[in-house]
């Protein structure tokens, strides 16, 4: 069961990687980022690409090192850190976007699900 949960986590992270790659289109970044100065627009895009890579790393570990994540102390530490990442992201959702609209609440719950996926195998 723990292995299956981690594989689900891999797909969860892969979905967020794809979602972040679509930010240019979804949020019309080709136009919107031009409102920022050159440096800030570049930083924004670099951070998004880097975060996308983090999601790919999480997915890769989940798919190809499932057993090690469950059975080793290092693996359990990595699972806890990924869980904390998603929990911290949930808190940021509330801080930056509030919980007054449905979309923000759905993202908050979705990020908590990510935290739960990765903490469960360590219990």
- Categorize the overall geometry: globular
Average residue pLDDT:
97
* Alpha-carbon Rg, integer: 16 Å
Q: How many runs of DSSP E, i.e. beta strands?
A: 0
> Main β-sheet: number of strands, strand sense, barrel status?
none
Contiguous uncertain segments of 5+ residues: none
What does this structure look like?
The protein has 123 residues and is mainly α. Helix content is 85%, strand content 0%. The chain is built from seven helices and no strands. It has helices at residues 2-21, 23-26, 29-32, 38-64, 66-71, 73-97, 102-119. The longest helix has 27 residues, at 38-64. The radius of gyration is 16 Å and the shape is globular. The model has no long low-confidence stretch (mean pLDDT 97).
Helix/strand layout:
Blueprint: H1 2-21, H2 23-26, H3 29-32, H4 38-64, H5 66-71, H6 73-97, H7 102-119
Descriptive tags:
123 residues; mainly alpha; 85% helix; globular
Can you give me a brief rundown of this structure?
This protein has 123 residues and is an all-alpha fold. It has helices at 2-21, 23-26, 29-32, 38-64, 66-71, 73-97, 102-119.
